[in-house]
Amino acid sequence: MELTRREFLERAGAVSVFSFSWWRLPWPADGQTDPAERVAEIPLIWMATGACTGCSVSLLNAASPTVRFALVGNVLPGKRLALAFHTTLMASSGDMAMRMLDRVVQEHSGGYVLVVDGATAIEERGEFCAIGERDGKPISGYEHIRDLGRNALATIAIGACASFGGIPAAPPNPTQCISVAELFERERIQNPIINVPGCPPHPDWVIGTISALVLGGLGALKLDALHRPAMFFGSLIHDNCPYRGHFERGEFAQRFGDHGCLIKLGCKGPMTHADCPIRHWNGGVNWCVEAGHPCVGCCEPEFPFEESLFQPVQPAQLTFPGTYPAAAGDRRRQADANTYAAVGMIGTAAFLAGVGVATAAGKIGPADAEVEAEPGTDREKGDAPAQP
Ligand code: SF4
Ligand code: SF4
Prior knowledge:
Layout: H1 5-15, E1 40-48, H2 54-60, H3 67-72, E2 79-86, H4 94-107, E3 113-117, E4 120-121, E5 130-134, E6 137-140, H5 141-150, E7 154-158, H6 159-164, E8 177-178, H7 180-187, E9 193-196, H8 203-216, H9 230-233, H10 237-240, H11 244-249, H12 276-279, H13 331-360, H14 367-370
Parallel strand pairs: 1-2, 1-3, 3-7, 7-9
Antiparallel strand pairs: 4-8, 5-6
Helix pairs in contact: 1-4, 2-8, 5-7
């Protein structure tokens, strides 16, 4: 029997461990009959619209717990997340995947978590992004987010694009991409939104936010003015950066590879809220600035910046204004002034040292003429003074 590619994928999806074993309905799960032992399952629908899939790749790098334990295991006390739909991770496809999505929405209206990854195009009725079909017609990403967002327990916008528009919405934005918040505003959807920005977001930010929401509800998440969880985005990169001392002393890298604060190379640490300097990336190995690259501000609404990622910015907050160099104003002149001052001091020191050496060697100075050589000394013999 010959199968088309689509038929093969549908049938393969039906037997895949990544399909229904990840989605266990209804609870009690796994034969648990004692109500006290019951584990409540919370469906998670991950909808990727105008995205590069980098956010999903970053999520898969989660180290502790791993994404499998976090999203399908029992690491949350009394709760189990059930990843019901994820176009990259699920094996089912076509009608089967869409039927599964419809079933989850019907059975858990108001009780599932919607995760959006990517910006949403609105130009040409959003036809640039279609996810699945219904009655033979493609469903746009816009329609999915609108309909799913209305009935979700909460919507989590993952990454810079879903949170603030990001790269798809950068000028000239030919597809008119917008963020989840803008889409909700257009559709007058009042449901709560949590933004977890980043390009990509750290896996801990994603798993930590979802876990806090599922365990403690919305009240467990303290959000800032941009709807970001304060536990991850509550402080400036600049305030925890190991190069902060260089910044304060006016020691600025002038080109890539130089040692020192990277603000002259466009570091956005002074205006970016995230815990990268403390958390580190790739399982705690390193982060952007310590790897020698300026922070590009990927957690802020301005990212990716109209002029350039490498355009220097003014620090948002000067915690101790009197002690900082003039980095908020004419940084180049200040840095160059520091350089000239350092060169001048070195030159003066070298001159004075030279005078001292020459004097000690008897080549210059009034002492040469005035001091009488004592009989029997090296000087009387015309030699240089003996070294101690
Ligand atoms: S400007 Fe950037 S490199 Fe310099 S101290 Fe601030 S965060 Fe660190
Ligand atoms: S250091 Fe800056 S650019 Fe790098 S991940 Fe953190 S917020 Fe984004």
